[in-house]
Amino acid sequence: MARPRKFRSPKALETKWEEYKNKCNNRVVLTHDFSSKNSEFVSAELRRSVTYTVEGFCVFLGISRQAFYDTYTEDERFLDIVTRIREECEIDAREKFELGVIPSQLAGLWMSKYGYTTKQDVIAEVKPSDKLADVMAQIGGEGLEE
Q1: Do 14 and 8 contact (CB within 8 A), yes or no?
Q2: Which residue stretches of the chain are H helix?
Q3: Is the torsion defined by CA of 98, 103, 106, 110 positive or negative?
Q4: H or E segment at 2?
Q5: What per-residue confidence (pLDDT) applies to 105?
């Protein structure tokens, strides 16, 4: 027997998505630093943002990722909001990378999740004279006059 849906309408899912994004954008973290001026450690609560993920959203909802996809991607009524959630996760990660919120050394890891790669295809430029030299070396130069 299938579990009952948490959301009866796409609008209800969209409302929870907006709540999740707000939570991600307004995380409060306790940070510690040493003040050389006062020669003491100081602590402060700072507002930080974390990257949106479908996995994080599912934890926020209290359901598994598999249950989320099985329940909501199979229903055409929810297809638009589920697609938008995926796209907003990708855009959020990309913007945070470009703005330096995500450290650059983690960019490849984050962006590979969305199909991007750090590999660059190198196309070797072959000059016609190089090909001729290879052919001549292979045949020993026989039959060619200088």
Answers
A1: no
A2: 10-25, 54-61, 65-72, 76-98, 107-112, 128-139
A3: negative
A4: none
A5: 80
User: 103 is written with which tokens?
Assistant: 């450290």
As a whole-number percent, the residues of the chain with pLDDT over 90 amount to 38
Please say if the pLDDT value at position 1 is more than 50.
Answer: no
Structure tokens that stand for 82 in this block:
């589920």
Structure tokens at 34: 């040493």
Q: How far apart are CA 30 and CA 135, in angstroms?
A: 69
**Do the Cβ atoms of 68 and 61 come closer than 8 Å?**
yes
Any idea which residue has 């994080």 for tokens?
56
What value does the mean pLDDT of the chain take?
82
Distance CA 64, CA 3 (A): 12
**CA-wise closest residue to 96 among 84, 111, 81:** 111
Q: If we measure between CA atoms, which residue out of 1, 9, 18 comes closest to residue 84?
A: 18
